[in-house]
Structure prediction request, 86 residues.
Amino acid sequence: MSDYRVQAGDIHEDQVTSLMESYSAKLPSSFFLGASFASIIGSLILKTQGKDENALFVGQWAAPFLLLGIYNKMVKQHGSDAETRD
Prediction:
């Protein structure tokens, strides 16, 4: 039986990913949480103004902001490429 699991250091991240992670890691995690709350509040404001389609559009930004915050936190804690860690 073959083992198809990827081990730490087997696959390397490209330079674009490393560059994006170096910039996003400079942002505090509270930035993404704040952006999520801002999209929810913006959606509520648009909904009260009767702009239902825009409210749905802006309200759907909350989940991606939270996911970006989780990704940002993981990069800060674990790094992006296992080979570059000690």
